[in-house]
Amino acid sequence: MLKKFFKIRERNTSISTEIIAGVTTFVTMAYVLAVLPAMLSGTGLSKESIFLATCLGAGFVSIAMGLFVNFSVALAPGMGLSAYFATIANQHGGIPWDVALGAVFISGIIFLILTVTKVRQLLVEAIPDSMKHAITVGIGLFIAVIGLKMCGLVGINLHLGPSLSGVSHAQGFGHIMGFEWDLLLGKITEPNTLLAIIGLGIIGILISHNVRGAILIGIIAATIIGIPMGLVNLHDFHFALPTFSNFKVNSLNIKGALNATMISVIFTFTFVGLMDTFGTLVSTAHKAKLATGGKSPIIGKAMFVDAAGASLGAFLGVPTLTVYLESASGIAAGGRTGITAIVVGLLFLSAIVLSPIFKLIPDAATAPALIVVGAFMITSSKEINFDDFTESLPAFLTIILMPLTYNIANGISAGIVFYTLLKVITGKYRQVHWLMYFLCALILWRYISFN
Fold it and tell me: How many independent structural domains does the chain possess?
């Protein structure tokens, strides 16, 4: 009965192969359990709450993907949107974390509506390929910058200037002029920075040798090395089941997110989630030989589960749950059915008991993982046509503005506006999908009205 339900024979696989594939996928994406709490710790959410929400969200939604879609892909909070969440929900002057979670929840509802009405396909078709690849590259750089800052590998040098006194009076918040600051290389002899460099080297060597789970192994190795360096305090370690007292389930503020100033935030969560999901699902479905030409009934069903996962993640207390490209490792190991995803989900749920171990991992050990994820994402730049300036300039603005303005929405917005304007001015307006004109007008209205 199990073989018939999951179409084991039809897809030329076996239960044992699916279990091995599930374990493989989990090992390659389990780094999220260490990285996400460190990344989101500045939002006001506790690390334990983030860890529990990640385990539960990734566990339940991955199992749902396996049961209802019979697809061998797993889900967890997306790195790109988690990085965006970390910047907008910063507890020092950012949007309150509960309001940001409300925006994630609303974006998930919008995603569901777009999925059911088939508008999602229209949106994917409207965005030119150069923009899609530029968004991936820009988010990769954005994630890498967070990792570089987290470990102190990149710092800022301030110069005395006219605006610094105003910033001082405002207790550290305010804008300083461009000539008053410079990016610089951090002190590599500092323990945190040195450990991050060591961890980055370990992960780089392991990936170069095609070692599965290289990022997770690198994080663990860096943590062990951090013990004699005084960055890991073993005296505070005690094994105990996690407490749910700080678990922020159902703490999202939907009413606060229903504000005109939150439009760009909701748009970013929806738009980036849509692009990431579609691209990942198409590539993994092809790898599993379940789709041809980007079309397959399984992709539509998978997008529905993915959309529901976005809202569930917000309910539990983490950013958008989305399909992980690391699922390709399990597919490469032979995973062809939902059993693979179910195994991944069960492993995420069982990881809850490992909470005390993950608490020991210092930020310096997780920072290299973010840098490496950024390196993976930047490879999409080779797909951008830099010979056509109407394609390359919007792509460049999309890429450069994300890390430098510390905002994904700014990069996407600049890319859409300049792509549309350049194509129209150069007489190539027929290359622009009608929906791009609407998005361009919406973006201009938003920045003119609320900046």
Answer: 2
